[in-house]
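To whoever picks this up:

The nightly regression suite flagged Subtilisin-like protease SDD1 as changed. Nothing in the input moved, so I suspect the structure step. Input below, exactly as stored in the fixture:
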Amino acid sequence: GVNILAACPSPPYCIQSGTSMASPHLSGIAALLRKAHGNWSPAAIKSAIMTTADVLDLQGKPIADYTGLPANGFAMGAGHVNPTRAADPGLVYDLGFDDYAHYLCTLGYTSRQIEVVAGRPVDCSKPVAAENLNYPSLAAQMGSQQQQRALTRTVKNVGEERSVYKAQVVPPDGVTVRVVPDTLTFTPSVKELRFEVRLVREEPAAAFSFGMLRWVSSHHVVSSPISVLFANVRPNSHDELLPSLQHEKPTASL
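Regenerated output under the current build:
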């Protein structure tokens, strides 16, 4: 939250910054979405806000970070919120109790420890790796011995009952990206579909690299940022962390 228009006793308005200024705006947007979609979970609301965010400013230029250079995923996350589009996201990445419980299993907690907090039985025989938690963003670490990674996601159709989405990818530098399947077809009887994002390491130029996955239909664009950490590459400067995302044309996945 930088230079947020805020209400003040005197004068009638002022400009303030900080997470404490950003949080109430996001909370207000979440409340409006909850009212419009009473059956959406908190995860679905979060997904709608993230996947419809803007990565370009009002002049159509890349959103800048505090140095004036194009912001990367660390500086702006998924982008600048767009409440109007968030009310009609097309697809959402949803999460429930079992997803979070199985994720805690991956962190080393036992079923008993999680049950004490959750107040219900938990089965840790099917843990969910951090990179496969059904977030509306994608992140992976690739070392010298990790040439390939596969991330899985499930999306729920909350738009037109009959719709077709095609994958478009802006790959992070140093990685080739393939989405399988690269087309999602929803019908009245098919409301959720699963897909896999396959990453293959090439020759990274920086320790961190950023890209974007977009599911595009005739009415919606559902965007998810991609972040990759190359564990054996040492960052040398701020410039190394800048994304090429805004300067490349989206390409359909192979």
